[in-house]
Amino acid sequence: MKSLELLAPAKNIEIGMSAINHGADAVYIGPSQFGARDAVGNSISDIEKLTKHAHRFHSKIFATMNTLMFDKELESAHKQAWSLYEAGVDALIIQDMGLLEMDLPPIPLHASTQTHNYHLEKVKFLEKVGFDRVVLARELSIKDIEEINKATNVELEAFVAGALCVSLSGQCYMSNNVGDRSANRGACGQPCRLPYDLVDNTGRKLANQKHLLSLKDLNMSDYVLPLARAGVKSFKIEGRLKDESYVKNQVGNFRKRIDFVLDKYGDEFVADSQGKTMLDFEPAIEKTYNRGFTTYFYEERNPEIVHFDTPKAIGDKVGKVKQIKANQYLIEMDEGKKLIPGDGLCFYDKHEQLQGMKVEHVDAEGWIKTSLVMGVRVGADIFRNHDHQFVKDLKSQKTQRKIESDIVMDWKDHTITLTIKDIYGNSYSDKYKEPFEVASNREKSEQNLTKGLKKSGNTIFLINNVTLPEGDLPFIPGGRLNQMRRDLIEAFENKRNSEYKQPPRLNTEIDHSYPFPQKIQKWDHHGNVLNKLARQFYAKHGITEIEEGFEGREDKSKLRLMTTKHCLRYQIGLCDEYETFVKAPEDVKFPLFLKSKNARYKLKFNCKECVMMIDDAPEED
Length: 621
Prior knowledge:
By secondary structure, the chain is an alpha/beta fold. 23% of the residues lie in helices and 27% in strands. InterPro entries: Pept_U32_collagenase, Peptidase_U32, RNA/ubiquinone_mod_enzymes. It holds the Pfam family Peptidase_U32.
């Protein structure tokens, strides 16, 4: 049967441990270098502590080394890869193909989504060159995933939640073009979240200062079963920059949904790690940071993938302003909604700009006093983007993850044997040869022994059943029984931990001459080649003429900066392939341009491939 893995992000060890405790089967985390998130590097010692905690539940830790590298960085990258292996990580997530020319540790290699895993033939290629897993492009449909699964043997990982990159992954150079901060080097400045004008070739504005490239957040909560049946093994939550509340909420949500599938379709799927998660809250992903939700292209193209008005989180609608006096508001609350001091609210002012305020007081009549803010109007919709009570509840540490186990006692020849066995078949026995007396009252002794052996405290075990010998029972003083139980559980956990082994790399039959799937005579900056080992790798696979990657070029002007499935021609009603949902503007003169204060981009449309391209266009063409 196929195992299903819930993969969670962690910007640090604390969030990583919290993700494991809330039910993650695996966590991905960045080391101090090459981790694709400059702001969240972690020391090798912290990552080692995280691996030891994760392995208690047979959960895994994946280290991200998914940035592009210059020649001078290759030696450091090689050393770091081995240090991570020695720290216990279970896989390396990489982008730069130069790493494949190195002697890497014998653990699985995952092809980052930054390797542009958008076509079946590319996934086949990655399997042939040694990857055990491929992180799929977010733009793929469930049907696409099913076709890839049928044609390959590599593990498939798919994003199911979190922020969406508007560009095809690994193919975005806009940030580096604007401000010298490279997404492929872990320092994206997110120009896609900025406001732009959309103008036609005459200079006519079709949109004024709108966030035209800002996508909503992905939410595939309702698609766990179809994704699993399509071939997805790993369900990945995006968010290595997110806080602990966000991670807890998302992990709790998908843990419940994956467990539902495991329970109902146990003949098809099994869990990927061990332990029962007992949440102390009801997950509600709309109550932590989000930009609104979309299923993107998992089913079919649809207009509900963008939020042109703001790139910020607006939360869920709670009501509408009914009356105003000074900085107090009477809000007609939606059914089931209630505000408390500490809640964060937002609304759109008459200029369609998002404004925020904080609830300071709520009186008996429902009047709400907030921090001083201008622009609130009667009739305005009010949204809550910070649910104070929910976030407060999330900060509690009452959620537990436990290994369900039983304890059996045997008493023969003055020797007590205690055996603990978990539901996964692991067991450990200890013997105590001591002159215990026979208990005078079996019923009372049975109660005391059962109660004493069931205590598991702050350990990872949950003792479901205690089986005692028939006939006479030993009288064991409470203090001695507690010590015996503690020793037994500690030894059992040590045994379980010592038996955990890092998974080996399974894909070892590497075809070093397998041709690269795209017929490329000369590769431009889209090849993302910045070092000699990457050139060496691609030469083996048929590509010998390679231009310098974008980050290594001196002249970065007038190049293609992005290719995206998000199409502004479709969004404004000018698509010839799909039924439009808005009235198209008349007499539009192509080409179209995006303009900001400091930049100008030319839009091109490949309707056969159903993609939009964005080129740097600093001057009139």
